[in-house]
Fold each of these.
Amino acid sequence: MTVDLRTRYLGLELRSPIVASSSPLTGEPASARLLEQAGAAAIVLPSLFEEEIVFEEIQINRSLEAGSDSFAEALDYFPNIESFAGAGDRYLARLRRIKAQAAVPVIASLNATTAGGWVRYAKLMQDAGADALELNLYHVAADPARAAADIEAADLALIAAVRASVSIPLAVKLSPYYSSLANVARHAIEAGADGLVLFNRFYQPDLDLDTLDVVARLDLSQPADLRLPLRWIAILRPELGPDASLAATSGIGSATDVVKALMVGADVAMMTSAILRNGPDKIRTVEAGLRAWMGEHEYESVSQLRGSASSTSVEDATAFERANYMRTLRSWSAPRDLTTA
Amino acid sequence: MTLARKTDQHHECLDGNEAAARVAYALSEVISIYPITPASTMAENADDWAAASKPNLWGKVPEVIEMQSEAGAAGALHGALQKGALGTTFTASQGLLLMIPNMFKIAGELTPTVIHVAARTIATHALSIFGDHSDVMHARSTGWAMLAAGSVQEAHDFSLVAHAATLRARVPFLHFFDGFRTSSEVNKIALLDDDDLRALVRDDDVLAFRARGLTPDAPVVRGTAQNPDSFFQAREACNSFYLAVPGIVGQVMDELAERTGRRYGLVDYHGAADADRVVVVMGSAAGAVEETVDTLVAAGERVGVLKVRLFQPFPVDELMAALPSTVRAIAVLDRTKEPGAVGEPLYLEVVAALTERMDSDNPPFASMPRVIGGRYGLSSKEFTPAMTGPIFAELAAVRPKRHFTVGIHDDVTHLSLPIDTEFHQARPAGEVQALFYGLGADGTVGANKASVKIIGEGTDLFAQGYFVYDSKKSGSMTVSHLRFGPRPILSAYLVDQADFVACHQFGLLERTKVLEHAKHGATFLLNSPYGPDEVWEHLSQDVQQQLVDKAIDFWVIDAFAVAEEVGMGNRINTIMQPCFFQLAGVLPPEDAIARIKSFVQKTYGKRGQSVIDRNFAAIDRSLERLGRVTLGPVVSDRSITSIVPDDAPDFIRRVTSVLMSGDGDLLPVSAFPVDGTFPTGTTKYEKRAVALQIPIWDAAICIDCGKCAMVCPHAAIRMKVFPAAAIAGAPAGFPSKDFKSREVVDHRLTIQVAPDDCTGCGVCVDVCPAKSKTEVRHKSINMEPVAAHRDVERLRWDFFTSIPPLDRGLLPHDTIKGSQVLDPLFEFSGACGGCGETPYLKLVSQLFGDRMIVANATGCSSIYGANLPTTPWTVNADGRGPAWNNSLFEDNAEFGLGMRLGLDAQTDQARRLVERLAPVVGEGLVRELLDSDQETEAEITLQRDRVRRLRNILEKVNGDARVDARHLLALANDLVRQGIWIVGGDGWAYDIGFGGLDQVLSSGRNVNILVLDTEVYSNTGGQASKATPRAAVAKFAAAGKATRKKDLGAVARAYGDVYVAQISMGANDVQTTKAFLEADAWPGPSLVIAYSTCIAHGIDMSKSMSHQKDAVKSGYWPLYRFQPSEIEEGQPFKLDSHTPSIPVSEFVATETRFAILARTHPERAVELAALAQADVDERWRYYEQLAAMHRSVPHVHQPDPDVQPEVENDAGYRYDDKGDLA
């Protein structure tokens, strides 16, 4: 039996639901090529960070000017550098090269936390050939003076600003930490997002006990991490309707993970950690596994599978909601009940 | 010069260097370069343009190559010319001197070329980077034509005249203009275009030159050796070419005038047609003389000035034709000094020319005019109209001084003419003169350069900018002198009647006479933390008085507050600049703001939107904060305090303090040492107080490691260990803690900052390993705002310095604690904040300072080491300390070797005399004196004591032994072991001085060579050297250095008997210390190569030591010690660093010098980065193998009767009894 793996994501026709998500591998032309050869249906580049753009511009200018016009013998310390390719320029150059070689859609990613000059990079990414744009709303809301509503309003304004600057499809990558994620998700779609990517993962600080320094650390995701996007995609799929695209990311490491993601309503399943751990060929293995599973279970196509277990498609919709917590506890106590029965 | 402003001429504001270099670049195929101030900019321009693939006039990108020295540049130029390629180079001062041998050859072969010289003082009793003609005058006999430009426009035009004329004449040209005054002045000039160049540089001349190039297709031989039968005649064979030069230059100048309207003569006369007194002058001083002449002529005086353009071949006919026949007296001004000559060169030429022509059939004058000669302007000493008037007055005297000086007060030989301080040159209507006082770091100069361009290039106004810097690299003051006006500005002297004065740093108001040159009614803009209503009471009485007396329109702005708000750090350029335009009235304010923004957009447009955004925000907010101050009554009780303490030595009070306060021009000749000898230990009197934050010690957390004191580039944070009783009289709260030590018990320790000497660089805090248990960001030392601590820390510092140092013998010197309790004899230098070099010098001074002599190569270390007014080399409580001298750049190793030879000669003689005087000295003392090995501090102390006893005895000797005793008294101190330290940077050691260094390494003599390797020529602004690593961007390697760094240590190790260490204090301070101790102990040559972080690396200098650590961690800078003194079968090569634990890419990503390449040349960056990693891998593998190797034969084979005549080492080589391979 042939299995139809095709899916649509952000209006793009993809040959399979397995997408290579942001990682160092998607940012370099050579490794991006390997990902595509291994079967990635689309490639999402790493995020271009607002802080990176600003920090680099300011820092390089400062260091090029440091010590200048202070001493008669050395009026400056670097050759005359009129222009240099900043983080944004280098990103665009890589995007162009990857796009030039790729047959699959290439999705650029922009991380901004405020509507500033960097929004223009959305347009530049479109001009550089990006097939779609992922706006990565990645920030830590640490300012106690800012209310949740303010933060959400700023995020939505940013989505609208980016939407207004590009015509290519726009996905928004969210964090799971909104108080009312479903509400934010709906507004994000209303603000112009064509789809949502659930969820981004934060670098979590760690301490180095030798130096007592705070060090940034990002651990690769584990299979259990998939539960969070599974729940929310299941909840959001019926809420947002069939036109909004949904991508599951975090913890996709096997064919069955992909199946689960699709079943709860994702259009695509995005892989990062599994590829970093096992190399690009992991995609090939997962795709083969997906075909095999679907064949075994007599699913003809991804569209058949997609959403078949969303919150409105399962017997008990509350299973995805808060009651789930209670049920888990109860399930733990069940064996004892049985023994005393 | 007549300035015909043709409408189609394009104008730009350039400095003299760029004005000359643009033409030189366009007309050259090969450009050999080497950095030297103030000519480096021309070479940098050429390298930048070549890196950007800018073609020359014929569509080819010139070959630009950096050589190892100016001698190398001249040699390469000579070769290129012999091949028939058009070539040029740029130089100054000693650099020109190094070119002279090749210049004789080039001229002797009648080879057209041009050397462009930013004329600079030649070092004599002192080095000077500033301008005069002593260098070019030294090249007179080389046979080069010499053409002098006196302004930025002339430097541009004469560059073309020289290139065109040399091709026509075949005589090479030396085109020169005044260093700094012209080379660095920014002025609005009309640019020559390619058609102008093509019109004057004729194709036929170019082709004829090419045809003379060496080729095997038509072989010839040049450079023969000739004998008495032929040389002389052959030398005379070129005469006709020299005779033709003046005519050719005149012709080219006429053609230039045809095309541009700018008419020049070989000499140009300006003034009264019936002048009886004329000044003859060459170079930029002509502007001041011309202005004075105009003023005097307008007042009815018959005076004039004759400007000499072509100095050689001297245009006798043109000189006679240009001088009015009415001339009775001539003063010839020379910007050079030739001690012992009858007069200086221009004077002699004029006298000879007049004498010859008066003796002809057709004498030009009824009677021989009286000619007198004067010196002016040495080392860029100001030359102004106020100095010119008295020259004309002198010419009118019955018995004028035959030879005079002007601009100084010579109270010794009384040669100087007075300066007419009442003379004020009338300024043209509509001109605005402005003065700006700032600090290097605040962007003042950059803003003013921008203002000159905005006005000069955006309007019909002419503009001039000249910038004066002090001699410090950190916290240095800058003064910008700007003029704007409707006529071309020829005033090549500082602004002395300012319409507008700005002080960009409140603190400078107390230290500097900011308002001295403000006109009555001038506008004064002050960057002040105090608003318009409160600033008055914070001014000193002196400042208040001047404001009132001169009825000054006074404005303030808190620019630092604005900078903080918009994220500009301490750069206030785009905040102060709009205020200037608002207040000075040069342009309508709205128009000015638009132009400033457009300039920012142009400058930073390609460097990032965020930079532009911040600047725009700064511009927009600046005018809102500008406030006018109502002058108040003069009541302040704040007066300016004396600059040095009353108990300072006489010389410090009389001379040094005057130099420090910026009034050096007022010092008479008699104030100065006659031979350039100055006292050391003077930086301590120069309390610069430049830090905004200083380190404050928390004794409770301190672990006594001493690292803070070790790494401090300025010796401004120190460690002392003392018995508790020593601080009995300490100021209240003076902190101390128990000192943890096995050797020294019951002692206390204090870490103390010198608040007025600290630069606030923060390196000490970066290295402090002691963190609070309750708050990790709090270390044992923390940077805190200076204002909150200065008063307390001043008291503590004064007390701290009074605590006697710990006995040098108590703690072992190979530990950090042990070295850091020793007094640094190198302190408070003007080096950059965070300098990577100075901690090494300081450590050396702690370990050996009381018995060392330093030979210092020219470079950063010679500048922060001995640039007047003060020197950081100092003395200990006994008055002992390093003795120091700087000879040149190229000869430093030899210079140091000479010191060693002198020392050895003296020591040998002393030892001989000791033996001879044994009967009076006593056999016991003689043996002790001669047999002491002086290997330890204690033994050195004992030896000093013996020498003291010896001197006591010798002073009482009479009779026959008296002569020997007197000689021994003069030499006795040399019986105490001394060290010769040869210090310099990588430019010296790897490049220009390498030949000499190699010679010294091969000599076997006991010298210690310390290479402060910053991997670029730091002092001249970061040009690449052979120490520059692959993939780094530097000047002269604008597209990233393609080749790998030279392994200098490997060269030295190859000799076998040279101690070699590669060190990095930030990575391993103990290894650093050991290396110095071993170098000192090794009786042969020692070479210590010290990784020195530098501002030219593009790093956060407060993390200087962290960068050093990363350099070592990545294997980029392996640490090792090679000890030739190892015993047989030992392993002489000790690798002191660990196997690389991070990739080189991780280290280099944090330094702009590397990181920028990926942003300018991405593909090349990838390629070079891979090679750079391969370099490191390869070297590490090699070094690991070296570290495992045994070596059986020490450096010098010592015949030993107990050993077999032949020995065999591990490798199976056999040696005979002479140590040679059998």
Amino acid sequence: MEFTQTEFRLLGLLVQSAERIITREALLEQLWDDVSFVDDNTLTVNVSRVRRKLEELGAGATIVTKRGRGYLLEPKDAAGE
Amino acid sequence: MNRRGFLVDRLPYVLAFLASLGLALAVVRLEPALSSGTPAGPSGPTPANLFYAGLLAAAVLLTYLFYDYQRRRPFWEQLAALRDNPFLDAFAALGPGATREQELAREAIRTQHRLYLDELSSYRAGQEWSSLFSSRWAHQMKTPLSVIDLTLREEEEFGRCPPEVLASLREETDKLDEGLELMLSNARLADFKADFVAHRVDIAAALRRVVNDHRAAFIRRKVYPSLQAPPEPLLVETDDKWARFVFGQLVANAIKYSRPGAGDDPKRVSLEVEPYPQGCRVRVVDQGVGIPEQDVARVFEPFFTGENGRLYPGATGMGLYLAREVCRRLGHQIDLTSKQGVGTTVTVTFQTKTSLHADLPNLTKP
């Protein structure tokens, strides 16, 4: 299983803000690449890739989308909330 | 100048008159001796002697005129030089006048010049004070602003304040920050010469920095940048800081007037670098609201906000004016085209110095 650089940074940010919602804006700002600028679609794509990879790995946590607010890394059992 | 002065000025003239009168009288008086043999007629001097007297008088007049011309000429020449001199203080070099009239004129100019300088220096001091004051003030206002900014950041991370409220507060502090920056730039523009270093700048790298400086605004407005530049670095002759100021204004405008992208169709601001034989063009293209046709011609005027200014209260009418001023001083050309509802394109044209040399062979051709 390989993570691209952007995916890895994204995962890192989600882990850091553990169990707190992190806004799309905050993620975009952190992921902003000096060479190729990250846009909204790129973020969406990366979030779903990371989510899929976490599932494939059988990780104990998943990325939950909070509509209009952002993303949250939650332990799997609480994900049904 | 009183009557005596007037007469003193005319003294050489009076002397010349007396000399020619004396000479003419002497001719008449010496008539018998001059026309030896020929007795003087009862009717007076002979025509030849009359002519001689006239000739003497004319010689005296010519001598006087020559003398007077030589005497007055230096002052006129200096006045003529002064008239064509573009420098304010050239007057100081004006030497003393030869006549009282000339001296009077010189003193009158000197008095006026001094009064003018006094007035000018008091204005200059006032101007310096107010520009110093406004730049200090702008700097000081930045401190509370950055405290607010930090508080907001903390609140975003740990607080309970709803994100919408934080976002709108953040938007307002950004506007304040932009306004203060504009004020500082305006103050700096006043002493542009002291703050200007020309060197070769990689334009694509400079633009990338501008885009990164505005990343927060891009993200918040859901507008995304794209930079299209040739892969090899393109060097242009400019001042790095001022060029970034110009593009900063253009990018900030492009973001501000882009309608927020809806869902799958985010708005873009593209920066296109296009080299051409004599330099390169940079286009800042937005897909924003555009500028009404009747306003396009006036967008570079100071404080002009036009129709969009009424719709978007953030408009200061200074951004494009300052951008054009800086471009003018850097020797770049700036043009704007816009179509309402479609978008605006601002083009900055850099002329590379090599174009001057490239022209040289053509000049030597017949």
